[in-house]
Every structure is written in C-alpha cells, then in structure tokens.
Amino acid sequence: MSFFIKSLFIVIPIFTSLIIIEQIASKMLKKKVNNSTDIISSLSSGITNITKDGMKISIVLVSYSFFLKHMKLFEIQPTWLAVIVAIIVQDFSGYWLHRLNHRVNVFWNRHTIHHSSEEFNLSCALRQSISETIHFGAILMIPAALVGVPAKIFAILGPIHLFMQFWYHTKLINKMGWLEHVIVTPSHHRVHHAINPEYIDKNYGQIFIIWDKLFGTFQPELNDVKPVYGMLRPAKTWNPVLINYKHLWQLINDAYHAQRYWDKIRIWFMPTGWRPRDVESKYPIDTITDPFNQNKYKPIITSPYFIAWSFFQLNIALITMFHFFTIIHKQTMGLNYCYGFFIIFHVFSFTSTLDNKRYSMKTELMKIFFIFVLLYSQDFHWFGLTYIYGGSMVLYSLLSFSITYYYHNTFKLKAI
C-alpha cells in the first residue's frame, strides 16, 4: 500500500472533522458558508478523484525518476537540505502547472471541477479532478534532478503538499498579518476562486505566495470587492463526473462546428474560454458578465429526507472506497478496475438524482445490473467479503432503485 493511500486513512477523518467544525462555527457566527447539496457534490468529487488515483489509470509522459537517472550531476547532502530543495521545487512546479491549467483551453478541463462550486468552504477543497490523466509536471522538477534529490522524497512530499492546500479554503479566517507576505492564506485563495474581474486568474500559489509576487499574478483581497465564487460558465450540475468533462465536451463541439481548419486545431491551445467567432455567434454559451447578479445553481428537491438519503448514498461510496483501498494490493488489476469503476458509477448515479435528472432511473437499473454481474463473477462474494455482504449489496441496490423511483414519481424530473 502506497504512502498516499495509507495517509488517506488519517487525513480523511481529519478533513471530515474540520468540515463539521467549520459548519458549526459558521452557524455560531451566523455566516453562511455552504449548503448540504454542495457539500455532497464536493465530497463525492473527492471520492471519485481518490478512487481514480487508486486505480492507477494515469499516463506519465516523463517521470521524475527518468530525469534523476539521466541528468543527476551530484547527490545533494545532507537529507534535510534535499528536503528543503524538494519543497521549493515542488511548490514552484505546482505554481506553473496551476497557472497552465487556468490559462490554456485544453488544460482548463483538468481543473474546472475545483472551481465549480459557487460556495467557498473546506469541502470544496476536495473537488479534485478525474480528468487529469496525463502527467508531465516532472519537466518542471528538473532542477531537483540535477542536484540529485531522491525520488522517494517526492513520493512522500507530494501527498503532504496536496493535503496542506486544504485548510485555506474557508471564509471564516480573515487576513493573517505578516503571514500574508509569505504563505498562501484563506484571503489569497478567496481571491483565486473568485470570478470578479479584479480577481480573475490571480494567486496561483499553493503553499508560498512569493511565486505570484515574482511572476506578476498576485492580487490581495480588497475590502470593497466581495469575492463571488464559481466559474464564468457555470457548471449547473451537482454531478462531479459530468463537471470533469463538461469543458472538454464543449471544446470538442466547438472544434467540430468551427469552419476553419486552423480554428479546429488552435482552439485547444488558445487562452481559456477562447472560441472561434463563427462558433461563438451560432452557439452562444451562458456566461456570467456581472458576478454580483449571479444566480446560484440550487437544489431542486429540497426535502430533508432526500438530503439525508443522499448523505447515506455518499457514505456508501466512502465505505466502499475504503474497502477498495484495503484490498487493492490483494486483487487482480481487472478486479480493481471493476471495483473502482463501480464506485465512480455509483457517484454518477446518485448525483444524477441530486440534479433531478430523468435518466437517474436508468443509472439505478444499471447499478443493479453492475452489482449482480460483480457478485456472479465472484461466486456471490463481494470482493473478498462473505455472502452476507454480497446479499447486503443486493438489498441496497434494490432499496436505492426504489427510493429513486419514489422521487422520480413525486417530482417532475428533467431530461438530460
């Protein structure tokens, strides 16, 4: 089991506790920071991202180990100095990858999920991508390879560096004095997530804010400009799987409809949001021009019982994800893919119901079929567990379908 997966068993309970504390504190301070449906969507996104990482379906174009082997000039000593160099290089490369994700059309698809929430709270920090499957960030880590920083340091530092970006996704912490000049703070990151003209494409730093100040992308939070969160082209869905590929689908459609072949090619590498003029006039996209007149995407089914059921569905995804990680090293790659895809499909299905979509009935039927196929292929055991768990999954799938059917008939559901 990798360091990343082992660490999840520690950080997920910590993150969950902090999200609950933030919710309690916001009520005490009478400051609204989230809503239940948004939290469910955010946590569901985190589950899909972690599950994807566990399946190891990413493609590494060039690895850090490759550069270390072929470009190392000497090996830096002592270890503490190598760690310091690694931290600086990790954060430097993170800044530039983050900036690329914001500035280049095709790369924006890898990052759009993280900015899709129209709230700003700790849970939205967990909105991480499943569409980021091609990795090339090692190119930016060549300076560390030149001085021989061991790859095992980055194997440990990488997850820690990611987890350290969780805490500053909150509206409850104001400016932090002299720390504002050194590290990324909640104030800095509120600016980054805002869609106000003053704040767009600013503050890409992940741990240190100095990169933004060095490269001209720093913007402090202004007292007279309240941040408005989300995207200029709103996602308008709670389904994290759809959000992950929404921008990519738009690019594919725009490339298809563009009349000029040059536009079909360059659209992928133009600044984020660029569209050919002929496509833009024929196929307009709903875009926010005045952030202060933003109409947030709201839950259509507001029944507290339905929200409670959706949280239950979320917990089913979380429990199966943890079980997946405990057995991932014991199973064949084929079974791991089947289990991982089941978890992601389960998230897709219940968040489709959150969106009040008519096709959620079909996804629930497909989930029943998926469960029966998985059980049949394993002699009615559920990935190493006894028949009792297999039977429980069958009962759960039937219950899930029945409740979805109830809401399907109680509310007027929308087509796709």
Describe the 3D structure.
By secondary structure, the chain is mainly alpha-helical. The chain has 16 helices and two strands. It has helices spanning 3-28, 36-55, 64-71, 79-103, 105-108, 142-146, 151-163, 186-193, 210-214, 240-257, 261-266, 277-282, 304-327, 333-354, 360-377, 387-410; strands at residues 59-60, 134-135. Strands 1-2 form a two-stranded parallel ribbon. Helix 1 (3-28) runs parallel beside helix 7 (151-163). The radius of gyration is 22 Å and the shape is globular. It starts with a helix and ends in a 6-residue tail after the last helix. The model has no long low-confidence stretch (mean pLDDT 93).
